[in-house]
Amino acid sequence: MIIYNVTTKVSTLIKDRWVEWMKQEHIPEIIATGLFHDYRMCRLLEQDDSDGPTFTVQYFTDTLENYYTYLQEYAPALRQQAFDTFGDQFVAFRTVMQVV
């Protein structure tokens, strides 16, 4: 199994709106691609939240090919939607992991 992990530090000013947007719009759009079969959203604990909380979303897929297809065909537009909606009030980084 492949896990596509997105870690995002969110400004306190947009935190509640961002979480709602993720749950109601962004995550469902990613799952609707059919390339990921499940996800998990978490808030990191024991972090410096003075600039805002940090969240992770892990998307689960069976193959690296699904992940690469997502990157090529869907990721650019979906990432742009986040910037169009929230501007520079968040920072995200991405990692890919394989379950062993």
From TrEMBL:
<dbReference type="Pfam" id="PF14114">
    <property type="entry name" value="DUF4286"/>
</dbReference>
<protein>
    <submittedName>
        <fullName>DUF4286 family protein</fullName>
    </submittedName>
</protein>
<dbReference type="InterPro" id="IPR025563">
    <property type="entry name" value="DUF4286"/>
</dbReference>
